């Protein structure tokens, strides 16, 4: 029961990233996302992932692995957008 609760919580918190990722992909704009926010959140999620692996908690590992992948996609989109801005100058 505890693992099921953790998996549901993980699905909900991880799915919360999908609208932002979809919007950023569609508009190709990540201007409203600060680099410091993305870096600090990614570091925290990475540490939660490491913790989940250390304690062998499948819910923590799954949720944080998917969230880290979504953050990686947002960081990549932000990096591409930055490159386009510099090229336009």
Automatic annotation (TrEMBL):
Superkingdom field: Bacteria
Annotated keywords: Membrane, Sugar transport, Transmembrane, Transmembrane helix, Transport
Keyword Membrane tagged: yes
Annotated transmembrane regions: 48-77
Gene3D superfamilies for the chain: 1.20.1280.290
The protein, known as: SemiSWEET family sugar transporter
Organism of origin: Sphaerisporangium dianthi
Organism placement in taxonomy: Bacteria, Bacillati, Actinomycetota, Actinomycetes, Streptosporangiales
């Amino acid at each position: 029961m505890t693992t099921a609760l953790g998996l549901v919580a993980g699905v909900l918190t991880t799915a919360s990233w999908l609208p932002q990722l979809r919007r950023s992909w569609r508009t190709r704009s990540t201007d409203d996302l600060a680099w410091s926010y993305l870096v600090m959140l990614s570091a925290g999620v990475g540490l939660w992932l490491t913790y989940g692996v250390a304690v062998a908690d499948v819910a923590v590992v799954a949720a944080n692995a998917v969230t880290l992948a979504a953050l990686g996609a947002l960081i990549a989109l932000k990096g591409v957008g930055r490159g386009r801005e510099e090229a336009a100058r």
